[in-house]
Amino acid sequence: MKKGIGNMTRVEVLFLGTTASIPTPKRNHPAIYFRYVGKHEYCMLFDCGEGTQRQIFLAKENFMKLNEIFITHWHADHYAGLLGLIETMSLEKRSSPLHVFAPEATRFLNTLLSVGYGIRKFQVIAHDVPFKGKEVTKILEKEEYEIFSIPVKHGIPAVAYCFKEKDRVKIDKAKAKALGLPSQSVLYKKLKKEGRVEYKGRLVKLEDVSYIEAGKKVVYSGDTEACDNLIKLATNADLLILDCTYFEDVKERNHLNVYEAIEIASQANVKKLVLTHISRRYQDEREIERVVRELAKNFDFDVIIAKDFMRIELK
Amino acid sequence: MKKGIGNMTRVEVLFLGTTASIPTPKRNHPAIYFRYVGKHEYCMLFDCGEGTQRQIFLAKENFMKLNEIFITHWHADHYAGLLGLIETMSLEKRSSPLHVFAPEATRFLNTLLSVGYGIRKFQVIAHDVPFKGKEVTKILEKEEYEIFSIPVKHGIPAVAYCFKEKDRVKIDKAKAKALGLPSQSVLYKKLKKEGRVEYKGRLVKLEDVSYIEAGKKVVYSGDTEACDNLIKLATNADLLILDCTYFEDVKERNHLNVYEAIEIASQANVKKLVLTHISRRYQDEREIERVVRELAKNFDFDVIIAKDFMRIELK
Fold first, then answer.
1. Position A52 confidence tier, pLDDT thresholds 50, 70, 90
2. What CA–CA distance (Å, rounded) separates A87 from A115?
């Protein structure tokens, strides 16, 4: 995979499964293959429904690059692919640790992995994610990004996740030039590092020539009904991926319908909304596309219905 | 599904997954959907690799008809589909019990089902299958068939299974007629039930006018290396389904290669051999077909390479 070019960074979201609970010929169980390309490349998985390892093969991606898996909740359609994926990683001679984040990860992951006679030659490390309260929790920090979670409402412990690329301090070249600082990377680096730089006897301060470039933000709800926590986590997201089990005004506890999903996206002021976890009752794709097109007219963000193997790129 | 017509009975074997360990675009994890149609229809599953529920959908079969699942051993590629299948059965409102047979079934099945928040509204009953020794064990008996098992060699507890339609006592109509007994079902039934029948003053004994029609026999090895137990269980089978991980002379402990598989079938005097559990290293189907065609020339039974969604019918 190509690394980011210059200061360009990239997020790729690949939908491996987009059905709700029960698979259909076109939609497998939930899983999202997530790639971030900054200075380095990072791959992670959000949810891991049954058949995820084969979907990764079919998408011509590499599951050996995955270092973190984030499970939203312990319903089988969201985690049943863990067993086989971990087993296959072992057969493929993985040696580096795999980190699995979930509410009650320690409890359930260790039980799951105690079944049968798998030979695991690498560590699978469970990380418990808080599933009560109203706070956003930072559950992982890397050099270039952070992962946050918040509890959502699904009748059982469940969370939503947020990938957040770190904000970057950028130099406004025109401003810098106006203050006598030429565009040289050694000078820019020093300025960013030390907050000031001297050039030909003139002192240039970072705050006078810089601005903040907000990092990309992607939020994935997992299964949930509407709740304030979700809006809080999703606020100003570049991409919000929501449970949208129903494309009618079905009020089911524990899940969202399309009206609720769009309302949440609107309140959270997101740029793009992807609807996934789609009930098998919607076999006619054109019909749900029509419903969404009608609704989306009233909002100024994109609304997309997820399909298996669909990719969305943020640059 | 149609019931058996008259005295005709039918066995259908549907291969849902035919890969070894790691899935490929064309081959999913091991599972066999097995249907027997006698007086009634019975459906069962042999092994249940990841993605089996979706393969059943794709094959347009009905997993709600399954009453028994037979797991050969606890490597994930042979059982990881249980979780999702059982969950989906529950979502589909199954109420009748499901019987799962396996070596150490109680230990592992109950642990597996303790993971997560599945809502099971039906009983899942674990049946422990013996995995030591040299004896064939009858593990299930129904009105029209029996299931047997025998331990095989795979480095961990593992068994092979045998489906055996019960032998039937049939009346030789010509012989019966010669002894003065007309072809009337009420007389035939009485003769079969009581061993004798009187008609117009003449006594006709069952042994004088009957013969035994052997029931159909199908044996599935699961993963194993060559062993006498397997030959014992497979003797005179109409259909033998074998682990054939390699189509070269690879001597790997725990698995069979094509030479060993054909030798076992020959020694067991089977009518038809199906090779499955095929390593992903064989992407060129024509090449392995060529190998098998060459070898099969020397034997008087059919040899078939399994493919996903292949069906074999025995009448």
1. very high
2. 12
* Residue B201: C-alpha distances to residues A126, A285, B173, B180 (Å): 82, 75, 19, 10
User: What's A9-46 look like in SS3?
Assistant: CEEEEEEEECECCCCCCCCCCCEEEEEEECCCEEEEEE
CA dist., res. B79 & res. B91, Å (int): 20
Backbone φ, ψ for residue B147 (5° rounding): -120, 130
Given a contact cutoff of 8 angstroms between Cβ atoms, the answer to whether B243 and B72 are in contact is no
Comparison of pLDDT for B164 and B5, the residue scoring more: B164
SS3 A1: coil
CB A161 within 8 A of CB A220: yes
pLDDT at B252 over 90: no
3-state helix, strand, coil in chain B (%, to 5): 25, 35, 40
- Of all residues in chain B, the percent with pLDDT exceeding 90 is 92
Lowest mean pLDDT among A52-56, A247-251, B214-218, B298-302: A247-251
Residue A2 DSSP symbol: P
pTM: 0.93
Give CA A68 to chain center in angstroms: 11
Hey, are the CB atoms on B23 and A87 less than 8 Å from each other?
A: no
Residue B73: count other Cβ atoms within 10 Å of its Cβ: 24
pLDDT of residue A3: 43
CA A7 to the chain's CA centroid: 21
In this predicted structure, what is the pLDDT of residue B4? Answer: 40
User: Which residue of chain B is at minimal alpha-carbon distance from A103?
Assistant: B116
Q: Is the pLDDT of residue A170 over 60?
A: yes
Q: What is the CATH number of domain A10-167+214-314?
A: 3.60.15.10
A273–B contact, CB cutoff 8 A: no
In chain A, CATH 3.60.15.10 sits at 10-167+214-314
The mean pLDDT of chain B is: 94
CB contact under 8 A, B57 and A24: yes
Q: How far is A116 from chain B (nearest CA, A)?
A: 5
- Alpha-helix residue ranges (DSSP H) falling in A59-145: 76-79, 82-91, 105-113
Q: Quick check: B231 and B263 in contact, CB under 8 A? A: no
